[in-house]
């Protein structure tokens, strides 16, 4: 049990298996921007030491600086080389061979690589690659309606192999899901991804897709 | 919480970690349930564009991500509370 429900109030009772970050915007009257009406009364009461410290901090202003990407694991750094657009063809159940476009984009100060495919369609999916500790991992937001996670199982000079992370909460015996992925770096502008799913408790044949980098003209 | 590299165009934010949905956790903060006094008093809205792509993760990874996200936001010019 991760939370108990007291009427409309959910209260977390202990560390859950899955968690997430969240960011709240706060309003202190540091600048001259127009403040939201419903917060005016709150802001009038700002007398805390913390707010005073914030005011002091506000006077030492720098111009906006870019987010500095931090160094990731060697495997994550290799994944970063994929940033951009890629195209290829893949076989989809019931649709035959279809065109596939995949976009890779760095987010959160270079700490997360987003992979987005079938953009703008009902089957649009994303996969987020990140370092978990010092090890490359990923979470796939699947059109099957679940979020299998995988961690790096092995790597060599030309490929990265991911395998299912049981900590993601999916029961492989009960829920169909993507289970493993290999990314083969054929050359600087060609990759082949091979994924394996478990459907109705049975492992599917590996499904390979070759993608070519889209070069800007 | 002070950020000498603060960009005045960027808001002051609080970074947290939860096993609930961010909406539920924010509501709890505002109701004073296991709340940060800063968020309870001054929190005005969630900024999903800054965290949505990261969630969910296994708890240990999310705990580390909370710290990393706070640090990344500081480097990007936000003044950041929480994130520990």
Element order, helices and strands of chain B? EHHEEHE
Low-confidence stretches of chain B: none
Percent of residues in helices of chain A: 10-25%
Assign the CATH architecture of the largest domain in chain A. Answer: Beta Barrel
Task: Tell me about the largest β-sheet of chain B.
Answer: 2 strands, parallel
**What is the CATH topology assignment of the largest domain in chain A?**
Lipocalin
Shape descriptor of chain A reads globular
Strand order of the largest sheet of chain A: 4-5-6-7-8-9-10-11-12-14
Distance between the termini of chain A: 54 Å
Q: What distance lies between the first and last C-alpha atoms of chain B, to the nearest angstrom?
A: 11 Å
Largest interface: A-B, 62 and 65 residues
Percent range for β-strand residues of chain A: over 45%
Tell me the number of helical segments of chain B per DSSP (H or I, 4 or more residues long). 3
Oligomer: heterodimer
Computed CA radius of gyration of chain B, to the nearest angstrom: 12 Å
Structural class of chain B: alpha+beta
What value does the Rg of chain A take, in angstroms? 22 Å
- Which outline of chain B best applies? globular
């Amino acid at each position: 049990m991760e939370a108990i429900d007291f009427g409309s109030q959910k209260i977390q009772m202990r560390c859950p298996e899955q968690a997430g970050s969240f960011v709240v915007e706060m309003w202190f009257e540091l600048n001259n921007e127009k403040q939201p009406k419903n917060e005016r009364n709150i802001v009038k009461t700002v007398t805390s030491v913390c707010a005073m410290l914030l005011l002091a901090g506000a006077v030492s202003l720098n111009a906006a600086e870019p987010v500095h990407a931090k160094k990731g694991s060697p495997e994550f750094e290799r994944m970063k080389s994929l940033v951009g657009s890629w195209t290829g063809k893949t076989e989809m159940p019931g649709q035959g061979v279809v065109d596939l476009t995949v976009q890779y984009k760095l987010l959160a100060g270079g700490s997360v690589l987003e992979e987005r495919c079938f953009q703008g369609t009902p089957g649009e999916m994303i996969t987020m690659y990140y370092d978990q500790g010092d090890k490359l991992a990923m979470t796939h937001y699947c059109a099957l309606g679940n979020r299998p996670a995988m961690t790096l199982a092995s790597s060599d000079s030309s490929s990265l192999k991911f395998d299912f992370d049981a900590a993601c909460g999916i029961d492989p015996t009960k829920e169909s899901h993507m289970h493993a992925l290999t990314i083969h770096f054929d050359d600087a502008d060609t990759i082949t991804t091979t994924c394996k799913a478990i459907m109705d408790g049975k492992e599917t044949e590996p499904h390979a897709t070759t993608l070519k980098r889209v070069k800007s003209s | 919480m002070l950020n000498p590299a603060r960009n005045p165009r960027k808001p002051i934010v609080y970074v947290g970690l939860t096993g609930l949905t961010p909406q539920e956790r924010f509501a709890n903060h505002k109701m004073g349930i296991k709340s940060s006094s800063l968020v309870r008093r001054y929190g005005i809205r969630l900024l999903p564009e800054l965290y949505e792509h990261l969630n969910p993760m296994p708890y240990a990874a999310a705990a580390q991500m909370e710290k990393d996200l706070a640090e990344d936001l500081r480097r990007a010019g936000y003044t950041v509370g929480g994130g520990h």
